[in-house]
Design goal:
alpha+beta, Phosphorylase Kinase, domain 1, Transferase(Phosphotransferase), domain 1, six-stranded antiparallel sheet, four-stranded antiparallel sheet, elongated
Length: 982
């Protein structure tokens, strides 16, 4: 099936007894959907699931339509699967379209596999498990809401199980598959046949599906709840759910036990009552946990109380979200206030109120740009804070909080690299500020005045270079960016110092001007000329003396400067040049010292960079070797926690000193061990000497010592395999030819020739006669050959082996060989098996006409059966459904019972047999020459003879039934005839 209506079929998703589900795509919207198509998978079930006597198929088809109608009425509920569309195929087959949701509750809680044998057959991902208490409560509330809608519509779902509970991408539950739902005012009552999934069925539903009520769904809901909370099924004397989930409310545990009551009257009556009790239990528990805990050393620890408080908050959120039924939940988190200074949660997973997000984002932006919040930026932030109605104190706290949060995130090992870089940048800027504060706060030597001081930087060049080097190794900033940030601070501090010095000079001027005025007023009139001359001469002498003294001092300074510079050159270290610059701030060799220091720093940085690169390369190589040894790490070139753990594990396993460090000794040991593994894998490959073994070696050791040899051996083995395959193919072809010859010879040897004759066809007037078997009429039969047995699995499988038959029928695990073939349709027979048989035998095999079949079955008798009017379990295989002839559910091998007088086996029972005829409701206008009736309803054909399943009255020679020619069933088979040309 390639298309269903306008939808393009992608693949079949699954099937039930009366419907197939396909994954398809809407060609216009490009939307994937699930389509359920009515189709009876096993015809033998039809009579067991309905009380309709004549033809159960229309009744079951109507149930399919009722399911679609019920789903349409319930689609308004957000927790029930929606039905997009309902329509019919060209042949009248109904279908309906739903959204495609691939995830079910099984994906959350695993499969119901609780024995070791079952666990061995499934992957570990499918092992049964419990889910968190909060998640289980949320799912339980959603599922309860779905059942409220179901029960309010007077429906009973009858198949509540994990596979029928779908989960959307938004983690919303949707109940599906109403195929066996009990509908109100059903036209045909259900039989006692069990319907549903046994692990989740209530006790009364396991006995009969006919009289179940809404409380039966509540039992299934209780099993689902127990399964989610415990990871187990409530089998036998099971433990309380709270034993597995001690954080769940006691009242909820009691509610689940109540839902699992054996008596329906003891359970909540329906979904509405269960949901009411569920919400009461959870809400009461959440309120109890939300109360302020008493400080008592004998009670819970702080972490336990925090866990319980978080659980209570989660439960309260879950309740509000579900009670509001898809309205937006109003959640209040502890630590938030409507208006005030407390603007973030005090809990570990703190979040900022949404109205403060613009301020938070701006703070983070400034931290990324400058590594700190500068004074100039506070005006903008305070403006944003005013808009959000928080004061300056709250803004200061928020800045500190965001900064500390970014530092904390950067310290987490598994965090994003951007967070790590931002944290490092903030710490670097803090170090810069500390350097400036240290310089400013240090005592300034008043004797070392210099007119060029205002043009000098606050921080020495050596300190600046050290800060830039540190910033390059820890942050994601460039040297130019770091230099710009430091220079901006230098200029800012220089401007501040300049303002301070200008202020100092002004103060001195203010003191000296009055003094000069006093000297001028008092001293000059008192001085005589000789005194003035003496004073001038003395001043000259004093001045010369002072000049000579200053000259000597200057010479000493020059000699000391040269000596210090010579000593720095001899040492030729960064510390030496740094010491010269610190002690000889105004020395004549400052520029030379700076250049020499810069050169040494650059050389040191270059060496450090090369050493770092070499170490990174060594770490990368070691990581590569560890990955080859099977350790789950990544090649990052950094000694991260996973790599350290892997190294320690390797060292411990190899009996080495456990260090967690990377060195050449570790690398050598890794390579040695890898070489040993290489040799071991190669020996294994050689011992197996198979293509897959050599390929496994190549994959495991792409640079292995034997890689080329493995490639050559693979090529050689492929050539040998090709030769063997050709020989094997020839042998198989020979074997197949012989198989076909033996099969067809056996079939031809068992053909029976029936002579021409006239007989009365149809049923006489007695209690078991049906209108479709009448009126009786005479039919003239020509000579024809008929198979003595029904076509067997062995014969069909020969056609399958030849490639002519594409359909491989299921034997239901009853066995193949000489059992009659089942699970094939009329079209499979006439389109595959008969053309093949005619080709290999050069004969003209066809299905018998209904008249030919009835003539062969009666075998000149006038009784109900060829042997008489009384049913006999020793004469035919029938009655399994009633248990009259035993309850073994399978066919018998052909020739298990005595043949009729024509030599034909199993004309009564075993399997229904197809005829050529189209279906007509009676024999009015039926052919009287023994030919097939090719008019009427040719979508259906005539089957006769009854089967292993049916009661005896359906085995009568005259009984006939109409059957869809496309249907495959385990009760249908066939035999063939060759018509005579005479």
């Amino acid at each position: 099936m390639q298309h269903i209506g306008k939808y393009k079929v992608i693949r079949k998703l699954g099937s039930g007894s009366f419907g197939f589900v396909y994954l398809a795509q809407d060609p216009k919207l490009q939307l994937q959907v699930a389509i359920k198509v009515f189709k009876i998978k096993e015809a033998s079930l039809m009579s067991q699931v309905t009380s309709a006597i004549e033809d159960p198929e229309p009744v079951i088809k109507q149930r399919f339509i009722n399911e679609a109608r019920a789903l349409r009425n319930l689609s308004a509920n957000p927790h029930i699967i929606e039905m997009y569309e309902f329509d019919e195929l060209a042949d009248g087959t109904p279908y309906y379209v739903m959204p495609y949701i691939s995830r079910t509750l099984v994906d959350e809680i695993g499969k119901d596999a609780f024995s070791q044998g079952m666990l061995d057959d499934i992957p570990k991902a499918d092992y049964p498990r419990r889910i968190s208490t909060t998640q289980a409560i949320s799912y339980l509330q959603q599922l309860s809401q779905a059942l409220c809608a179901v029960h309010e519509s007077a429906l009973v779902h009858r198949d509540i199980k994990p596979a029928n509970i779908l989960i959307t991408k938004e983690n919303q539950l949707q109940l599906s598959d109403f195929g066996i739902a009990k509908l109100p005012l059903s036209e045909h009552s259900e039989t006692g046949f069990g319907m549903g999934s046994r692990n989740y069925l209530s006790p009364e539903q396991q006995e009969s599906a006919k009289h179940v009520q809404a409380s039966s769904d509540i039992y299934s809901l209780g099993v689902i709840a127990y399964r989610m909370f415990t990871g187990q099924l409530p089998v036998g004397r099971f433990h309380d759910a709270i034993d597995f989930a001690p954080d769940m409310p006691q009242a909820l545990n009691d509610l689940i036990i109540l839902a699992l009551s054996q008596r329906p009257s003891q359970r909540p009556a329906d979904g509405a009552q269960f949901l009411k009790l569920l919400n009461q239990a959870v809400k009461a528990f959440s309120k109890e946990l939300s109360k302020e805990p008493k400080q008592d050393v004998n009670h819970n620890t702080e972490s336990e109380l925090e866990s319980e408080t978080n659980l209570a908050a989660d439960l309260e959120i879950s309740i509000e979200a579900n009670v509001e039924a898809n309205n937006e939940a109003k959640i209040k988190i502890k630590g938030y206030t409507e208006a005030g200074t407390e603007v973030w949660s005090a809990q570990k997973t703190s979040q900022i109120k949404k109205e403060l997000k613009p301020i938070e984002n701006k703070i983070i932006e400034l931290l990324k740009q400058y590594g700190e919040i500068k004074t100039d930026d506070l005006l903008l932030l305070q403006t944003l804070a005013d808009i959000a109605h928080i004061d300056k104190s709250a803004l200061d706290e928020l800045i500190v909080h965001v900064t500390q949060q970014k530092l904390s995130q950067g310290n987490q090992d598994n965090n994003d690299n951007n967070d790590n870089k931002l944290a490092a940048f903030i710490l670097w800027m803090d170090a810069v500020n500390k350097q400036f504060n240290a310089v400013i706060s240090s005592a300034i030597n008043p004797n070392t005045t210099n007119t060029n001081t205002n043009n000098k930087n606050i921080l020495p060049d050596a300190v600046v270079n050290s800060l830039i080097t540190a910033g390059l190794s820890t942050t994601d900033k460039t040297a130019e960016q770091l230099t710009t940030l430091i220079n901006a601070k230098q200029q800012s501090h220089k401007n501040l110092n300049k303002l301070e010095k200008i202020n100092t000079v002004t103060q001195i001027k203010d003191m000296l001007v009055p003094l000069f005025k006093k000297i001028k007023q008092r001293s000059l009139p008192l001085l005589s000329l000789p005194l003035i001359r003496l004073t001038v001469s003395g001043l000259i002498i004093i001045g010369l003396t002072l000049l000579y003294s200053q000259y000597q001092t200057q010479q000493k300074i020059i000699l000391a400067d040269d000596s210090a510079w010579s000593q720095a050159q001899q040492i030729n270290t960064a510390a030496g040049y740094q010491g010269y610059l610190e002690n000889k701030t105004h020395g004549s060799h400052v520029n030379q010292a700076k250049k020499a220091l810069t050169k040494l720093i650059q050389q040191k940085n270059s060496v450090q960079i090369n050493e770092k690169k070499a170490q990174q390369q060594l770490i990368d190589t070691v990581q590569h070797q560890l990955i080859k040894h099977g350790y789950p790490i990544s090649r990052t070139g950094e000694l991260d926690q996973r790599t350290k753990h892997a190294i320690k594990t390797f060292e411990k396993n190899q009996g080495l000193l456990v260090t967690g460090h990377v060195d050449n000794l570790l690398l050598k040991k890794l390579k040695q061990l890898l070489q040993l593994k290489d040799e071991k894998q190669w020996l294994v490959a050689q011992s197996k000497h198979e293509i897959n073994a050599y390929q496994e070696y190549k994959v495991a050791f792409p640079q292995g010592q034997h890689f080329m040899q493995a490639s050559q051996l693979i090529k050689q083995l492929r050539i040998e395999k090709t030769n063997k395959d050709q020989q094997k193919k020839q042998a198989q072809e020979t074997k197949l030819r012989q198989l076909i010859e033996d099969t067809t010879n056996d079939l031809l040897d068992n053909m029976i020739t029936l002579p021409a004759a006239s007989f009365t066809m149809g049923c006489a007037q007695h209690s078991e006669c049906k209108a479709k078997e009448m009126p009786q009429h005479n039919v003239a039969i020509k000579t024809f050959n008929i198979m003595s047995t029904e076509v067997t699995f062995a014969q069909w499988d020969t056609c399958l082996a030849s490639g002519a038959c594409k359909v491989k029928p299921d034997d239901e695990n009853w066995g193949r060989g000489n059992r009659p073939v089942i699970g094939i349709s009329y079209h499979d027979i006439v389109n595959e098996f008969i053309p093949w048989l005619n080709k290999v035998t050069a004969k003209n095999f066809v299905l018998p006409s209904e008249a030919q079949w009835e003539y062969a079955a009666k075998a000149n008798s006038r009784t109900k059966y060829a042997w008489g009017d009384v049913p006999d379990c020793l004469k035919a295989r029938y009655g399994q459904f009633s248990g009259l002839c035993g309850d073994e559910r399978k066919t018998s091998t052909v020739k298990s019972f005595q043949a009729n007088i024509f030599g034909l086996y199993d004309m009564h029972g075993n399997v229904w047999e197809w005829t050529q005829d189209c279906w007509n409701d009676n024999y009015n206008a039926a052919p009287k020459n023994g030919s097939a009736w090719q008019t009427g309803d040719c979508n259906a054909g005539v089957i006769k003879g009854g089967s292993w399943l049916n009661e005896a009255k359906l085995l009568r020679s005259t009984f006939r039934a109409g059957y869809n020619r496309s249907t495959k069933a385990n009760v249908n088979g066939f035999r063939l005839v060759i018509n005579s040309t005479r």
